[in-house]
Design brief:
single chain, 139 residues, alpha+beta, Aminopeptidase, 5 strands
Length: 139
């Protein structure tokens, strides 16, 4: 039985090992500094637990944009490989949908890397539609 819940700020550092697996080329100190900055900008994180073990995460932002209105944005969704294909992703996303609705959100959006074809399949199965390209540029 898996439990999905928001990760309290005093336990937020517990996500760093999962973030490191998702972003292996980013130094832990950089991840920690970015996390601190994000927490100061309304970032939340939800975790999936197998007993006491954190096995999945998703960052959360509640935003309002002209084209979509008030929505919940998933960020850096990651499930440990040994826990994938067990329904945990669906459990996590459905929890996020309910949480977003409880906060008055009318939609959800996310970014998924272009080369992450398994991710595309999952997000399509969860009802997401490809709407735009996300562009990024270093300054």
């Amino acid at each position: 039985m898996y439990v999905v819940k928001l990760i309290k700020s005093e336990k937020i550092e517990s996500i760093i090992p999962l973030l490191k697996k998702l972003n292996p080329n980013i130094d832990n100190n950089v991840l920690e500094a970015r996390l601190d900055d994000m927490l100061n900008n309304n970032y939340e994180c939800v975790g999936v637990y197998d007993k006491e073990k954190l096995v999945g995460i998703s960052g959360l932002w509640i935003l309002t944009k002209y084209y979509v209105g008030k929505h919940i944005e998933l960020d850096n969704v990651f499930i440990l490989p040994e826990y994938q294909r067990k329904g945990i992703g669906k459990l996590l996303v459905n929890w996020i949908f309910d949480y977003g609705k409880s906060k008055g959100c009318i939609a959800s959006e996310l970014n998924c890397y272009v080369n992450n074809t398994k991710g595309h399949e999952f997000w399509n199965a969860m009802g997401y539609e490809k709407k735009a390209y996300h562009f990024a540029r270093k300054l």
